[in-house]
């Protein structure tokens, strides 16, 4: 047996009490009934504590006709989804186009026949139930997608962080070097996007570049301690071994990517490119492959400038830190030789940001 709590609620709107009574008698055994005798009253009832599941709306009413009532219902987000069935006398001329234009979904003619009224109301309520069910399913699906996306993002973050932590334990450079270069790369990418046509530099990809930058020297885990931790400058033979860290890093990340399937779109693609190519030079004189110009992936070209700038301004066992102005002069000297000219232009545009990042993550702090 149905109770008031689980019955659908119908709002019957008509300026004639007899018409409300007729429809109520037909429907009250199956539905909970609300009534309104004017357009204004109908709008108030529709927005009340009990939201009707369906409205049976007379067209010909004084002051505000059914068309206007329906129009206002559909303009209000709180009532826009309530289905409206017009009720009109057979002697009245029904403008079907106007009725559907203002948002009605059906109409019933007077004098009403109980079987028709019950069938039309039941059909529209069933459609409404399915629409709500579909909307609920879509909301749940959207929430699941958001949760899975957040979970995937966090997994990526943890993976990159774990790999970066591993690299940091084997590197004789400071953790602040990693943080500085990470922010340099992000600032450069955003500035480069403003300077030209770089569709690759979407917000999502710039974030991925930022997260991947700490892995630029992960290949150093494969360099012997005697070379990696040597306090002085490396000799030629030692430097030849040290240079293999770029290829080692790229290969290690490439192996990790193979288990992910879609290698070109994996979340580690920029980490691989940065690790492998950040010592390549624009003129082809870099390593490990001697790539030239735009054959060097953009991620590697960005990291190249960020890494060299930070090495210049940082203290090393074999050198004192350079000033920003001296480092800048060397970067400009390397424009078109060591560095992508466009990346150097981006650096010039935001050099104050580099200064701020260097101060914020200084080794002294």
For the largest beta-sheet, the strand count, sense and barrel status come to: 5 strands, parallel
Fraction of residues in H or I helices: 55-70%
Coarse morphology? elongated
Question: CATH superfamily of the largest domain, please?
Answer: Hypothetical protein af1432
Topology pattern, helix = H, strand = E: EHEHEHEHEHHHHHHHHHHH
Distance between the termini: 74 Å
Any overview of this molecule?
The protein folds into two domains: 9-140, Response regulator (Rossmann fold); 171-360, Hypothetical protein af1432. Helices cover 56% and strands 7% of the residues. The chain contains 15 helices and five strands. The chain has helices at 17-27, 39-46, 66-75, 96-101, 114-170, 175-195, 203-212, 225-228, 236-242, 244-258, 269-277, 298-313, 324-333, 341-349, 351-360; strands at residues 9-13, 32-36, 54-58, 84-89, 106-110. A five-stranded parallel sheet has the order 2-1-3-4-5, with helices on both faces.
